[in-house]
UniProtKB/TrEMBL annotation:
It comes from Brachypteracias leptosomus. NHL repeats lie at residues 125-161, 165-208, 365-397. InterPro entries: 6-blade_b-propeller_TolB-like, NHL_repeat, TRIM-NHL_E3_ligases, Znf_RING, Znf_RING/FYVE/PHD, Znf_RING_CS. This is RING-type E3 ubiquitin transferase. It catalyses: S-ubiquitinyl-[E2 ubiquitin-conjugating enzyme]-L-cysteine + [acceptor protein]-L-lysine = [E2 ubiquitin-conjugating enzyme]-L-cysteine + N(6)-ubiquitinyl-[acceptor protein]-L-lysine. Residues 25-71 form the RING-type domain.
Length: 397
């Protein structure tokens, strides 16, 4: 293929400026870091500051501060880690480096169009409506979408047409509050189940927002989850390196069983269950020494939890044209594995478990930092884009 045209100096300057805006605190202009004073923190209004500036603005008692950009007041306890930026810093590695090199971009021309037959039908959310969203799930009976994000009310429920039906899950310490949601799923009987990284729990709600069950079964850091066709929940524990199967009567608020079904995984996060075969796919986040060496690995299991296949970023890079760093995974109705890739800002089909991996880009433009995937009952593809705080729904044209 023809090489991309060279960037103009003005284009490179604009890209560099955008990168500075992304990686530096806009108060002290220091580069964000994974810990200490430079750790990026969300304010309730959605703006991001480093931990040092949050403490400085809070004064000696560190009780209240005012956002320097929109002047909204909040308490220091209302701030939270900015997960998308922390994930990007993890991808950049301890040596820093540029966003473009970490994501494997050449900086060339615009990405190609999406394949024929798949078009953007609806976009929801946006800055202010959603704040750094982390998970999305679809109810297969009603078509409603549940989104987890870092706003004042952590769960938003949208109708199939995009109308916001419900908001619930206040930030706080009460039993039904949500401190920091990492992922969300919807069970076959219409319950919204959320992993809460803030207090390391799993919480279930009905669609009206009433809490029905809180599970703290000794989880280290529950992260990704997906519902099976039978109404069970498959859950990843990132710090424990394990997968669990949760069986519960959510209507009665009773946990029947919490069973570990796989262990010795490396930081498992995103997980998905095939609605046809019951196969399970999980994304592991691997760390290696050196700059930009963080990578991911996709593992596929049968419904009986036999390992079918696996492929890491390095192996995929040997087969395909670019480094692939996956952040979310789903199965389509034919049982094919679909992943997001933040390196190419794309959604890619890796094929069915028995043919894994193939390489078929489904969406190759219009995304900035895709972190969530799900399919609706009518096979529309829903992409959660944390880069512009939106939900993008694609369907056959």
């Amino acid at each position: 293929p023809a090489s991309a045209p060279p960037r103009s100096p003005a284009g490179m300057a604009a890209e560099d400026e955008a990168e500075l805006n992304l990686l530096e605190c806009r108060v002290c202009f220091e580069r964000y870091g994974p810990g200490g004073q430079r750790r990026p923190r969300n304010l309730p209004c959605g703006h991001v500051l480093c931990q040092g500036c949050v403490r400085a603005l809070g004064g000696p008692e560190r009780r209240r501060l005012e956002c320097p950009f929109c002047r909204r007041a909040c308490g220091s306890a209302e701030t939270s880690d900015c997960l998308p930026l922390l994930q990007l810093l993890e991808l950049l590695g301890p040596g820093g480096g540029s966003v473009s090199s970490a994501l494997g971009r050449s900086g060339g021309g615009a990405a190609g169009p999406a394949p024929a037959g798949l078009g953007l039908r609806l976009a929801l959310g946006g800055w202010g409506s959603l704040v750094n969203p982390t998970g999305v799930a679809a109810c297969r009976r009603s078509g409603r979408l549940a989104v987890a994000h870092d706003g004042k009310k952590r769960i938003h429920v949208f109708s199939p047409s995009g109308f916001c039906l419900q908001r619930f899950g206040e930030r706080g310490d009460a039993g039904n509050d949500i401190k920091y949601p990492l992922d969300v799923t919807v069970t076959s009987d219409g319950h919204v189940v959320v992993t809460d990284g803030g207090d390391r729990s799993v919480k279930a709600f009905n669609f009206e927002g009433r809490g029905v069950l809180v599970l703290r079964e000794g989880f280290c850091l529950p992260w990704g989850l997906d519902a099976t066709p039978e109404g069970e929940v498959i859950l990843s524990d990132s710090e424990a390196g394990a997968l669990y199967r949760l069986t519960a009567d959510f209507k009665k608020g009773i946990l029947n069983k919490c069973q570990m079904i796989w262990s010795q995984l490396t930081s498992p996060r995103g997980v998905a269950v095939s609605q046809t075969s019951g196969a399970v796919v999980v994304i592991e986040h691997l760390k290696a020494q050196g700059l930009n060496n963080s990578s991911t690995r996709v593992k596929i299991f049968s419904a009986e939890m036999d390992l079918i296949g696996q492929m890491d970023s390095f192996g995929l890079n040997l087969l395909f044209p670019s480094k692939i760093y996956t952040t979310a995974v789903a199965f389509d109705k034919e049982g094919r594995v679909i992943v997001t890739d933040v390196c190419s800002q794309a959604v890619i089909c890796l094929g069915k478990p028995e043919e894994f991996p193939i390489f078929n880009p489904l969406i190759s433009h219009g995304l900035s930092y895709p972190v969530g995937l799900t399919y609706t009952a009518n096979n529309s593809l829903v992409v959660l884009d944390s880069g512009d705080h939106s939900i993008k729904i694609y369907s056959s044209t």
